[in-house]
Design goal:
The structure holds two protein chains of two kinds.
Chain A (H helix, E strand, L loop, with lengths): L2 H32 L6 H21 L7 H24 L8 H23 L8 H6 L1 E4 L2 E4 H24 L1 H11 L1 H6 L4 H23 L9 H16 L4 H21 L7 H12 L14
Chain B lengths: L2 H14 L1 H4 L4 H22 L8 H16 L5 H23 L4 H21 L1 H4 L5 E2 L12 H28 L1 H11 L1 H6 L4 H27 L1 E2 L6 H15 L3 H22 L3 H15 L3 H14 L18
Antiparallel strand pairs in B: 1-2
Helix pairs in contact in B: 3-8, 3-11, 3-12, 3-13, 4-5, 4-6, 4-11, 5-11, 8-9, 9-11, 12-13, 12-14, 12-15
The chains are: A mainly alpha, B mainly alpha.
Chain lengths: 301, 328
């Protein structure tokens, strides 16, 4: 096989992995702290993408500079985190922390159903495409292969910064340590005066914001249309499950594994492209039911 | 015989007269009852404390299996039902072998992943599956007789009604049987089950295969009634709808599944015209309301009313246990 194709496959895989990681890391962070799997996470991703593509399209058409695409992405992510993530946690999830897992799943699933239609109501069924950010950064030549700077450099750098940032945030800062403490033992943390409710709210807002940012970053590379949220929640769950629920660094490795596997399939067996992420997940789970980096849960008797 | 048992019998009799009293509702009820059978599969799993967001997988597999058989020379309703249900049961066994290793979140989401895989296979391999347009399912013969449209639809209505009652009864018997009791222990105390030397996975697998077969039966009946199968049969929206009806009817209640499905379809037939664009939204809001404020669902509300009515004559005489709620 031609080595340029191999390189292309690797670059595709890398940029795709970066995008998936952004969404998966929010999902796994929320699960790690709240012990709730947020099925609506995919919708938050989609709404982040819709916001960026539609607002971007409107302001660039009005003659504003395309550089504004980047602050716009951050604003979209913050909007998703604060305006959607905040109320979901505060009004809904707060009522169900003591309920069984199945009920919690059903509640977030209901939110997912609601948000899918909200997207359709606000943005309709037509696809949005707004690639100013991607075009502005231009192309780069690496080992004789041309690739967009946006996908090859910006996306992986943002993903890596997110990973490092989260790690530093959780281990070094006071707020991060509070989150870690609540994750370890909620009751003990509360008994020394930590406001667990605030920690939960903060974590959910951050996680939701990461999903929104993932969508915002993805929007220049693809058409934004109904259904991307459903695909993304399943895909990012595949990443999170492969890594082990709640494992942040693991999610990065699993995202790379799945991204590279998927792009390898794109160039060899294109029909299998959509299946590869799940096949990787199934293969990993068959051997390690708790995921690559998960630890077997102790059973309560 | 109390009011509790008389009312359902009257309701069934009323439904059975629908083709003569309200023929316009006949096809609607055929679809509703077919869905009820599928929902029983999801309800069954709720009794083991598990929720599957991907049971449309079996609904779709059986429907496509039926469509393939119908395209061959064996296009008889009975053959379709047997082939489709077998297809669903076998795929239920294969998927089940994998998913019964998990509970809770993983169980629900892995089922969703399997159904999304199947859905994208249906969309991509259009040479075999017809892609997004799906496959036509021509009206099959019934035991060798080819029927005209009207008698066929009438017959299909009674077949569906009969299957709903028979399978509902069967599922209730299953839940009452030793295997079924063990199956429900997966929810209440799985560890104790294993202390008894019984494999929780095998027990759950038995129920899973049954639930897949139920979803499959529902899928075939819907496919035959509509005359077409499309990938949307296996899409997550369909799975979500089943979960919704199961929770609405009363999580874990088999009669609740039937009542829930009929109520859902009737409301949808009239309300969807006004709310077609926001149907998922309406469902989501309702689902939240049921979970947060009426966790027993319709069956729970009915039990509450029936208890109040029969309290004066029989305070505690061999009362059936109340419908299981999702939260124990």
């Amino acid at each position: 096989m031609d080595y340029t194709i191999v390189l292309l496959a690797i670059f595709d895989g890398l940029s795709y992995a970066a995008l998936v990681f952004m969404v998966a890391v929010g999902l796994t962070l929320i699960f790690g702290v709240l012990r709730i799997l947020n099925v609506a996470h995919g919708s938050l991703y989609a709404i982040g993408a819709y916001l960026t593509a539609s607002i971007g399209g409107a302001i660039f058409a009005a003659g504003f500079a395309p550089i504004l695409a980047f602050p716009l992405m951050l604003i979209a992510a913050a909007l998703v985190g604060i305006l959607l993530g905040g109320p979901i946690e505060y009004l809904l999830l707060r009522r169900i922390y003591h309920k069984p897992e199945v009920l919690q799943l059903l509640v977030t699933f209901a939110v997912f159903m609601i948000l899918e239609d909200v997207q359709r109501l606000v943005w309709g069924n037509q696809p949005y495409f707004e690639a100013s950010a991607l075009q502005m950064l231009g192309n780069i030549q690496v080992f004789g292969v041309y690739y967009t700077v946006y996908q090859l450099i910006l996306l992986p750098v943002v993903a890596a910064l997110t990973l490092i940032g989260l790690r530093v945030f959780l281990r070094k800062t006071l707020t991060g340590r509070l989150i870690t403490a609540v994750t370890e033992d909620r009751e003990a943390a509360q008994s020394i005066g930590i406001d667990a409710n605030r920690v939960y709210l903060l974590t959910f807002v951050v996680g939701a914001g990461l999903a929104g940012l993932g969508g915002a970053l993805a929007s220049p590379t693809t058409s934004v249309l109904p259904g991307i949220g459903a695909e993304m929640i399943v895909l990012s769950f595949a990443v999170v499950a492969t890594a082990g629920l709640g494992r942040i660094e693991g999610a990065a490795i699993a995202a790379l594994l799945i991204g590279l596997g998927r792009s390898a399939a794109t160039y060899t067996f294109p029909e299998l492209q959509v299946l590869v992420p799940y096949l990787i997940m199934l293969a990993v789970l068959l051997v390690r039911p708790e995921g690559l980096f998960g630890s077997p849960a102790a059973r309560k008797i | 015989m109390t009011i509790r048992h008389i009312l359902p019998a009257i309701a069934l009799l009323l439904i059975a007269t629908i083709p003569f009293t309200a023929p316009a509702l006949q096809i609607l009820l055929t679809l509703a009852l077919a869905k009820a059978i599928a929902v029983m599969g999801v309800t069954l799993l709720l009794r083991a404390g598990q929720v599957s967001f991907g049971h449309a997988l079996f609904f779709g597999i059986a429907a496509y299996a039926a469509a393939f058989v119908a395209a061959s020379s064996l296009d008889d309703l009975v053959v379709l039902l047997i082939a489709g249900t077998l297809g669903a049961a076998v795929s239920g066994l294969i998927v089940g072998l994998f998913v019964v290793r998990y509970r809770g979140i993983f169980f629900g989401m892995l089922n969703l992943a399997f159904s999304m895989i199947f859905w994208s296979v249906l969309e991509k391999f259009y040479h075999y599956t017809g892609g997004a347009d799906g496959l036509r399912l021509p009206r099959p013969s019934v035991l060798g007789l080819s029927l005209e449209r009207a008698p066929f639809e009438l017959l299909l209505f009674y077949v569906t009604l009969g299957l709903t009652v028979a399978l509902g009864w069967f599922v209730l018997r299953f839940l009452g049987s030793p295997v079924g009791q063990l199956f429900q222990t997966v929810k209440t105390n799985e560890t104790r089950l294993e202390y008894l030397g019984i494999s929780a996975r095998t027990t759950l697998l038995k129920g899973y295969v049954l639930s897949a077969a139920l979803c499959g039966t529902g899928g075939i009946l819907v496919a035959v009634a509509q005359g077409i199968v499309t990938p949307s049969y296996a899409y997550w929206i369909r799975s979500g709808e089943m979960v919704f009806i199961a929770v609405l009817g009363g999580a874990g209640s088999i009669p609740g599944a039937v009542v829930g499905a009929v109520a859902y379809e009737v409301v949808r037939a009239y309300a969807a015209a006004f709310a077609a664009d926001i149907w998922q939204l309406v469902l989501g809001v309702f689902l939240l309301a049921v979970i947060l404020f009426a966790p027993g669902g319709l069956a729970g509300i009915y039990e509450g009313l029936a208890n109040r009515l029969s309290r004066r004559d029989a305070p505690s005489a061999n009362r059936k246990p109340a419908a299981k709620e999702v939260h124990s």
